[in-house]
Amino acid sequence: MQYEMVIAGFGGQGALLIGKMLAYAGMKEGKEVSWFPSYGPEMRGGTANCTVVISDRPVGSPVVQRPRALLALNLPSLDRFEDAVRPGGVILYNTSLVNRECRRTDVVVVPVAANDLANALGNPKGANMVALGAFVGATEVVPMTQVEALVRETFARKPALVDVNLQCLQAGFGEARRCVEGRDRPAAPGM
Amino acid sequence: MARKLMKGTEAIAEAAIRAGCRLFFGYPITPQNEIPEYLSHRLPQVGGTYVQAESEVAASNMLYGASGAGVRVLTSSSSPGISLMQEAVSYMAGAELPVVIVNIMRAGPGLGGILPSQADYLQATKGGGHGDYRVPVLGPWSVQEAANLTMEAFDIADRYRTPVMVLGDGLIGQMMEPVELPDERPPAPDLPPKTWASTGWKGDRPRAVINSLYLDADTLEAHNRHLQQKYRQIRERERRFQMRFEEGDYDLLVVAYGTVARVALSAIEELREQGRRVALFRPISLYPYPYRELAAAAEKARAVLVLELSAGQMLEDVRLALGRSRPVHFHGRTGGHLISPEEAANRMVEVLEGRSQEVADV
Amino acid sequence: MSSPAVLEETPAAASERTRAPVFGHPESLRQVITHYCPGCTHGVIHRLIAEVLDELGVRERTVGVSPVGCAVLAYNYFNTDMHEASHGRAPAVATGIKRGRPDLVVFTYQEDGDLASIGLSEILHCANRGEKVTVIFVNNAIYGMTGGQMAPTTMPGQVTTTSPLGRDVSLAGHPLRIAELVSALRTPAFIARGAVHTPLHVVEARRLVRRAFQYQVEGCCFSLVELLSTCPTNWGIPPHEACAWVEKNMVPYYPLGVFKTPDGGDRAPRPLGRE
Ligand SMILES: Cc1ncc(C[n+]2csc(CCOP(=O)(O)OP(=O)(O)O)c2C)c(N)n1
Ligand code: SF4
Ligand SMILES: [Mg+2]
Fold first, then answer.
1. Helical residues (DSSP H) of C63-114, grouped into ranges
2. Cα torsion through B35, B38, B39, B42, rounded to 10
3. Whose CA is nearest to atom 7 of ligand 1?
4. Which terminus of chain C is more exposed, N or C, with fewer CB under 10 A?
């Protein structure tokens, strides 16, 4: 089983970091993973995206045209990648920075107000963690425990940040679960 | 050692250290800046030296000096910078100096762009600079393989006294994958001692002169014969390749190297699930090119499709290997565009269904 | 000559004058959005050059050469014919243009990695041959384009991505002072250093740029103006702090002023034994 995802946003929103954390968590799970960032002129325009593949066997193409899941942190990202997602896949988008609905009806759509949730938790910088938690909740691509361990590890040198970021992570996770449960299950990667 | 998530560029840099390289000279250029950046902090930690040269011209001549003094040394750059190094590479080939050069290719010609490309294939494999010389060239398709081949490159360089190039593209430089590295990868035990190196002459060996100048035609021809003899040995012993789905029959053989072979593999797997009979041939050593192995692999196929991020460079070697025995088809992207698995699969189906035109002779 | 008569302004002319824009877009600068980071002073320097080209009325016979650095796309910004040179070679390209078409006004726009590192040979020989071209040299103490590596002009102790512990002058040497270096050549030239981190400095820099082009237009000599510039992005500080950083760290090491004029003779060393 192989799961491909695209994480996209403005530069500074943490799209590349979220992708790296997913890949890292996948690796810790004993999976094969690849992470490929956009680089080059398009980054000057202020957008950043990465493709992450998590698989049971060696990853073939690290470049993916039709991912199974999309995490769109802002409107341009949703505009750009919405149509690429495979039918039955997952589109998670950040309603704090997207002022329209997702048009796709053949995928599981998970709207999450990442910035608003992070603000409500008093940690505006934690929007990326909300999004990460939500993405894990919506796709179950890696176990939440693995991601939580990773957050602890990432912020080990700044203990004050561990709890606030875990809070954001869990808030996002909970929000996505509420959204997904009671619906048709997404094309779950089963891993 | 545990698996670590690393960028291709960083894995190459760390692999060089594990292979005992303690010296790096280079000049910044995208998309390989992480190699010098990584080594600027890592090398001092292990007692090594990092020097930012004033240019690639200087960096490559620093290599000439360091290697001539018998030290393992690395440089890395990307296409425009590699072009500037070609003079020194020719001199190093002539003076028989073992060095490792990493080229993380970007799209050209000229300043081009910074996105991935494989358009330096001919420059890398057919010499690149002036004079009759070749440089062993290794083309990794994963981050792990980039690290492995970097370590191996140092041995090949020392064994044959030649510059060796690790040829990747912007994709392999920028992507992250899990890597396992040995704590230390000592030089192969049977490497010849560097008695030729300029380490200070105490009269116990012939004086070391690191040089590529032979004004007398006979001497220079003898030197060239010696070099060609060495390249023959390299062609005999250092061919590396990999095949997928070679068991059983196949109608189409896809030939690709580096990350493009990964894309091809994904496409092939998808097509095979639909019952299409496609196999993959992946040269790992681009010089020496596995001509014989490719010719043998093509025997089972009705047609061959070459995929490259160029206008058709390795294609020339494929045609050299196959002659007119099989129709050869080509699909290439330039400008920094990647080939997507869907695009690759479409081309494969076109060839299988007879809807593709084979590469013409001119 | 008698003093010029004081002309009375007609009311119509006066109202025309008050309505006339006092600040417009120089004709020599294209009206496009540049790719420079917010707060970067590359844009200021572009404008100075464009204003001077307008003022001297030479836009239509000017050819610029852009470097490889953040200003690589300068060919999109100057409203003149332009060349894009390979990294560091702009002075050689400029030499080719000027020798082939001496009637043209030729300038290069170069940055510290481009001019002071990979292109040091080209700039020294261009200056030494006394090519009648103008070099605008932007010193921002870093490689901006490639993401913040150490430049030959990086300050001692300055942290960059390839000097993670700060520039160590015992290994990387001291920052290169280009204006001083080039003015040591015997060939007559106009060499100066200015800065653009405050409005007053910008005014002064404009005068230097104008003088540099003026010398070329008169067919007099090679001219080079080094301008201290900011890179908030890779210095990792906001633009206003970057300007303060120039004043605090760069100006003391890179003194501002005119280093050489074409009429000045050789700089004689002090006689031996009298130091
Ligand atoms: C031969 C060659 N080597 C390296 C590069 C990569 N490169 C692009 S811009 C640049 C230097 C940028 O620094 P600088 O000249 O100071 O300009 P800035 O970006 O700071 O304005 C380098 C090394 C290149 N394009 N060509
Ligand atoms: S990277 Fe630095 S020099 Fe380049 S445009 Fe941005 S601020 Fe200016
Ligand atoms: Mg600079």
1. 90-100
2. -160
3. B29
4. N
Q: Which among C146, C167, C169, C234 is the top mutation candidate for probing chain B, defined by the most B β-carbons within 10 Å of its own β-carbon?
A: C146
In the CATH hierarchy, which fold is given to the domain comprising A2-181? Pyruvate-ferredoxin Oxidoreductase; domain 3 (3.40.920)
Domains and CATH numbers, chain B: 4-201+210-237 (3.40.50.970), 242-352 (3.40.50.920)
- The pLDDT tens digits for B42-72 are 999 999 999 999 999 999 999 999 999 999 9
Cβ contact C64:C109 at 8 Å: yes
The candidate with the shortest Cα–Cα distance to B159, out of B193, B186, B126, B125, is B193
Q: How far is the CA of C82 from the centre of ligand 2 (A)?
A: 21
Q: CA-CA distance, A69 to A130, in Å (whole number)?
A: 17
Whether C87 and B80 lie within 8 Å, measured CB to CB: yes
**Cα distance between residue B105 and residue B310, in whole Å:** 11
Domain boundaries along the sequence of chain A: 2-181
Chain B hits for C147, Cβ within 8 Å: 28, 30, 33
Token pair listed for A71 = 């995490």
- In C188-197, which positions are buried (b, 16+ CB within 10 angstroms) versus exposed (e)? bbbbbbbbbb
* CB neighbour class for B212 (10 Å; exposed up to 12, middle 13-18, buried from 19): middle
Amino acid at C226: E
> In this structure, are strands B23-26 and B163-169 parallel, antiparallel, or unpaired?
unpaired
Query: Residue length, chain C?
Result: 275
Report the b/e string of B100-136 with b at 16+ CB within 10 A. Answer: bbbbbbbbbeebbbbbbbbbbbebbbebbbeeebbbb
**What domains are there in chain C, each with its CATH number?**
38-266 (3.40.50.970)
Nearest CA among B154, B166, B151, B50 for reference residue B104: B166
The ipTM, to two decimals, is 0.92
pTM over 0.90: yes
Q: Across C166-266, where does the E strand assignment appear?
A: 189-195, 222-228, 257-260
